[in-house]
Amino acid sequence: MFVIGQPAGADQQITASWVETQLGGGGSSRTYAGRVAFKDSVKALQIWADSAYVQGTTYIFVANLVFQDSTRKVRARKLTYDNGARVGKFEGNVLLEDEQRALFAQHIHVWPDSDKVLASGEVVLSVMDEDRHIRADELTYRATLNFGTAVGNVVASKKNGTDSLIIEADSLRFVPDEETFDFFGNTVVSQRRTSLFAESGWYRGNILRAIGHPQVFWSRSTQVDSLWAEADTIDAFLKNDILDTLFLTANAKIQLRNQRETDVAKFTLMGDAGFINLAENMLSTLKMNGHVNLGFEQADTFAELPGDSIFVSFKNGKLDSLIVVGASEGTFNAAGKGNSRFLGQKKTLWFLDDRLVRLRLEGHALCHYSSLVEREDGDLDLSGDILDLFFEDNELSQIIAGGNVSGVYLQDDTGSAQ
């Protein structure tokens, strides 16, 4: 074995099985082969490779490369190391590891005198002992500052059992050792059947905020049901690393779509702020506050209910009931059958298989019904403390009134009133 001492100082040496020295006008160069080892005792730096080439302060190590200093270990196919500038460039399936992270890329720059790392090409950063990963075209981080950036086709993921929270964006700022991300540009957050779209946002442990025309989409696989929502800002809260609750702030809109074999039921909720609860990835409750409006559409049936707040509950993932609070006039129109206008401080709607079967009006309740069917039915005005309206196939079939009841029934053919 040859020992080539003092390549750049008394604290450095190279050993190899074979060496060749070339002399030229530009200075000498050396080629090493066979179990090449470079050591810097002061910097606690060691490099091993199958071969090496040295000219001036530039070292090139090739094949079966291992680089190790006091904090990290790197494996690659090639290393170009500037001993003067103290910078190394690794190429070819590079794997960099320290006590907390593993970084894979096609190209990685390191600075032995600092903790700065620059990686590019198929970059994957993984946090040890945790299922957290960042993929990108380019990534930079500083270990002591505990801060990094990722650019280009960024995908950050965190796995919890069989579930993964995935964040895709154009760029990302992150803290490698913490669950902290700031994401920018064309952002998509997805988990299970929920997807959140935004221009930018941030993630802090169990809270995720989406900013810039954010939209959320949820769907069921067992039935053709879906939910779509938007607002100026959407805050998502996670429970045990699973998306659980969504808060919609300013100009909130939620649309629920339930499709069956014969028709589609569509509900649209609008208001100042909204709330969506996804318990175990199933719709549990929806809520809307502040200048709210509910729109309902199914086949040739249309309904609109404005108010101060809306509360929607689900049972076994299916729509169960809907409550609108606020003294305002609502409408229910069944094309070719009849039209209804109603008032009440509180309006509760019950559904069976996504079809309206009952509407209760409470507090100064008033209902005006006009039949469009050619029969003896006429117009009806009815008021009371409570009115219960029952529907069959989206047609009003029965009304039960209670408390201070009064009303007028006008037949179409005779004009008589009762």
Question: Can you offer a commentary on this structure?
Answer:
There is one protein chain. The chain is built from no helices and 31 strands. The chain has strands at residues 2-5, 12-16, 18-22, 29-40, 45-55, 58-68, 73-82, 87-97, 101-110, 116-127, 132-142, 147-160, 163-175, 180-191, 194-204, 207-211, 215-219, 225-230, 233-239, 242-259, 264-279, 282-298, 301-315, 318-325, 330-334, 338-343, 346-352, 355-371, 379-392, 395-402, 406-410. The chain is mainly β. The chain has a 31-stranded antiparallel beta sheet that branches. Strand 3 and strand 4 form a beta hairpin.
- In what range is the share of β-strand residues? over 45%
Biggest sheet, in brief?
A: 31 strands, antiparallel
Tell the overall outline.
rod-shaped
Helix content: under 10%
Low-confidence stretches: 1-6, 412-418
In whole angstroms, the N-to-C terminal distance is 117 Å
Q: Output the number of helix runs.
A: 0
Overall structural class, as computed from helix and strand content, comes to mainly beta
Q: What is the residue-averaged pLDDT?
A: 86
Total beta strand runs = 31
Radius of gyration: 34 Å
Question: What is the topology?
Answer:
Blueprint: E1 2-5, E2 12-16, E3 18-22, E4 29-40, E5 45-55, E6 58-68, E7 73-82, E8 87-97, E9 101-110, E10 116-127, E11 132-142, E12 147-160, E13 163-175, E14 180-191, E15 194-204, E16 207-211, E17 215-219, E18 225-230, E19 233-239, E20 242-259, E21 264-279, E22 282-298, E23 301-315, E24 318-325, E25 330-334, E26 338-343, E27 346-352, E28 355-371, E29 379-392, E30 395-402, E31 406-410
Antiparallel strand pairs: 1-2, 2-4, 3-4, 4-5, 5-6, 6-7, 7-8, 8-9, 9-10, 10-11, 11-12, 12-13, 13-14, 14-15, 15-16, 15-17, 16-19, 17-18, 18-20, 19-20, 20-21, 21-22, 22-23, 23-24, 23-25, 24-27, 25-26, 26-28, 27-28, 28-29, 29-30, 29-31
